Amino acid sequence: MSALFADPSAAAIPLHLIASDALPEWLDGQSDATRTWVAAQGFTGALGQALTLPGEDGALRMALAGYGTASARKRGRFHLAGAAAKLPKGDYELHADVPAAERAVEALGWLLASYRFDRYATQSPMAARLVAPAGIDADHIRALAEGEMLTRDLINTPASDMGPPDLEAAARKLADQHGARISVITGDDLLAQNLPLIHTVGRAADRAPRLIDLTWGKTGKKLTLVGKGVCFDTGGLNLKPGASMGLMKKDMGGAAAVLGLAHMIMATGMDLQLRVLIPAVENAVSGNAFRPQDILTSRKGLTVEINNTDAEGRLVLADALALADEDKPDQIISMATLTGAARVAVGPDLAPYFSDDPDFVAALESAAATHADPVWRMPFHTPYEPLIEPGIADLDNAPSGGFAGCITAALFLRRFVTDSPYAHFDIYGWQPSAAPARAKGGVGQATRALHASLGTILSK
Question: 87 near 128, Cβ under 8 Å?
Fold first, then answer.
């Protein structure tokens, strides 16, 4: 996590953020030489453009970053990051006539643009560094960037180095960093502690399944985050085809997201009691793998008919959610790379979520709009409940027909939370192609919006 702001210094290069329609007015206040240089280089203020201007001695005296038009900005986010990646080495001080909230988002985007996944190969660092802009909380922005980078690192790491024990080690490292408490239930102890679904899904793998339980904070409202930690998903006996298995190192993206969010919460010192539950497993194939048409009994006592072993994420989440609900926290939030249906519905860029609480929805969507972290509400549509009731068991883990797959998965999870406010996020956790501030690969979704809205959500 090397994304830090540059130290303020007199040597910082002024960087002017200029919208297309503001360029003529800005040029009116510049010298003839500057106007000539800008015109000769073809700088128009288009989104993502970057231009450096030399002084008489040839050294950089200022730089320009294009801010485009209002309509162009609506088509993306982290607009400054695109220009920042094109600037030469140096420390830059932002000059921008935009609101402080907008400066904060653009500063965060700059830090996120500097992310490199360099565990296995050397990566060239981004040359330009930013001095924290005036009027923003630099420590707060840094904490958000660090949380996002933690999420990205965890998702990007292949299952060979990010199995259940490695995910546990990452959680322990985070706990040590913030003085949190952590306990882990592993292997057959899951059965002794009445976590049978987590054990069943993970028992076929060489690396034992486990439940990671991290707690932090002693005052304030109680928040429990539950993250799906399927470190690799073969599909089990309903084996995935090769093309569908290619990205399954990211099937622990929910766990990565809640750990990133936990860092944001702890690093910014939020006044709440945090609990993070991560069922960490591999869905593998061996002689003791669970089978289609098995009927399993969950921690809550609900029975589940297995009609597809590739619908394993909701099983491990079910036990963790039941455990979370027993504590009756003020809010439970689950995050999981759960269904392909969610991707078909909204694509990779939006984080679909489920909540019946209008106050939760209003707070989250307001924060999402101002923190460049888009979400999309999906319905807990109760009339679809019969689709998850197979008749010979309480629940069906994979209803036939394929309709409303992300909704039926969310309804399945909701059955395990009866005493606490509950919201569920069916995230993708992956950036398919590079975009400003978002390298191709693992990515956090909805965590910044949640962090910004938790104070309101928990204030009820």
Answer: yes
Q: Report the domain count for the chain.
A: 2
What's the token pair of residue 72? 């162009």
Residue 288 lies in a domain: yes
Query: Mean pLDDT of residues grouped by 10 in the chain (460 residues)?
Result: 72 95 96 96 97 92 96 95 95 92 96 97 95 94 98 98 98 98 98 98 98 98 98 98 96 98 98 99 98 98 98 98 98 98 97 98 98 98 97 96 95 98 98 97 98 95
**Which one of the listed residues 35, 116, 240, 343 is annotated catalytic?**
240
Chain mean position to CA 124: 24
Q: Is 218 a catalytic residue?
A: no
Catalytic residue, from 203, 250, 275, 314: name it. 314
Among 89, 107, 133, residue at a domain's last position:
133
Question: Are 168 and 276 members of one domain?
Answer: yes
Q: Is 203 a catalytic residue?
A: no
Asked if 336 and 250 count as a contact pair (C-beta separation under 8 A), the reply is no
Claim to verify: residue 110 and residue 44 sit in the same structural domain: yes
Q: Domain limits at 87?
A: 13-133
